[in-house]
Amino acid sequence: MSWGTWHDFWSMGGQGLYVWGSYAVTLAVIVTEICVLLVKRKSILEHLGRLSRLSRRKPAPRPQ
Questions:
Q1: How many structural domains are present in the chain?
Q2: Residue ranges of the chain whose pLDDT lies below 50
Q3: CA–CA distance, 48 with 61 (Å, rounded to integer)
Q4: What is the pTM of this model?
Q5: CB-based contacts of 28-34 (< 8 A; 24+ apart in sequence)
Q6: Looking at the domain assignment, is residue 40 inside a domain?
Q7: C-alpha–C-alpha distance, residues 46 and 15, integer Å
């Protein structure tokens, strides 16, 4: 395809809404996935930090 103007490019022969809408949805899904992964990573690192701190504490004395 060849486009003579920017308007022709953006309208994509009458299919622009579908084409650019598809790109927008795909971008939104990718950005959402990245945000979810970052939040989960932070949560996992915090959990591992708590476990590490707990494992370094001295054990409580055993009752005799």
A1: 1
A2: none
A3: 25
A4: 0.70
A5: none
A6: yes
A7: 47
